[in-house]
Amino acid sequence: MVPMLILRSQALAPVLLALFTVAASAHALRPTISEVTFPDGENRVQFVFQPINLEALVADIGAGYADTDESANAAEYDRLREFSSGALRGEFDGFAPEFLNDLTIMAGDTRLTPKIDSVIIPPEGDLALPRESLVTISAELPEGATELTFAWAPRFGDIVVRTPVDANGDGYAGFLTGGDASAPLVVTGGANQSALDAFLNYLVVGFEHILPLGLDHILFVIGLFLLSTALRPLIIQITAFTLAHTVTLALGALGYISIPGSIVEPLIALSITFVAIENIFADKLNKWRPFVIFGFGLLHGLGFAGVLSEFGFAPGQFVASLIAFNIGVEIGQLTVIAICFLAVGIWFGKRDWYRPAIAYPASLAIGGYSFAWFIERSLEIELPILVVVALTVVIGAALLTMKGWKDRMAMGAYVLACCAALTFLLRIIEGMIP
Prior knowledge:
This protein is an alpha+beta fold. It folds into two domains: about 1-25 and about 210-430, no CATH class; about 30-155, no CATH class. The chain is built from 13 helices and ten strands. The protein has helices at about 1-20, 55-60, 75-80, 85-100, 195-210, 215-225, 230-255, 260-280, 290-310, 320-350, 355-380, 385-400, 410-430; strands spanning about 30-35, 45-50, 105, 110, 115-120, 135-140, 145-150, 160-165, 170-175, 185. It has a six-stranded mixed beta sheet with strand order 5-6-2-1-8-9. Helix 11 packs across helix 13 (about 410-430) and helix 12 (about 385-400) runs antiparallel to helix 13. The longest helix is centred in the C-terminal third of the chain and has 31 residues, at about 320-350.
């Protein structure tokens, strides 16, 4: 039996890796947000960057990190993060010429020369949290300029660029990555952004919030898949989840519901834990699970609303932005399910060893890891990787004992070993934030 388990584990290792590599990231450093205005009676454009992480810019953390500790310049970031407002302002003043040079503001073929108008830096506060500073810049417009574009260096990370609604109800909101330039911004205050442009932009934002940025939502969807590879139970669960998060996403986006992320995020983690643990004790869809999934969907919708509120809506395109974001989320979720089917469902879903060999270790890893998230999000700490792995294995062992596996030592050892390996892999993957 043991040699067979070893052989099986070697064969399934790539499959399990594929299943979890779909969740190859979590939430990145918060993007900078820039409000673009054209002051009345003045032939200039003004950009207000808030929040902006000056420590990350000055330290040259670079794009592609969820945690500044992953960057080669982490020590410099930590040093700057301890600075007082005045000391950090001095560091930024020295960096300012480089910062301004890496901004590309074009009016036709003319590159504008920006200058810094003001810098507001809060006190150092809680060093475990990023400091949200404010920087205002402006540039003179050439005579007759009717529109302009904005971009900044890819190493500065992601940025949301927004303009207010003009008299015609037009405006712009764009999520820019990798140094991309904005759509042409009309000098009168709006932008040449059609409803289709807004729709496509927010479709991408919604999709990227699942793949690759939404590790927690990905693990929840994988948890739904692991209950059963049969299509009907999966459709029922996904439908309940979709209907629920659509409701709270809309209500949250409209401002009718507002619950702090400090409450929503730990509860989302617990919802993942519940779904994963139930997979150990249930082998088919029971009559009340869809209602539980619906309740959890309400929570996840609030999480989506929080993300969307950070980006804002394309002015004058609220409905198109909201619908597109939600569709993007759904496409992301369906993509996760498709990958799961291609990785394990089609090939192994009907094997009698599928649940103990694949579904159990995967569910235990998801359940233990999400419970570690609950602790981290509730206490605002980060648990060491070995603590997370140990916690997951202890929870897994307890659940297998409750399931009556005391006389299945070899299989239990295999499941817990896979569970530990997958948990370790998830922690590594969580650090691979694009």
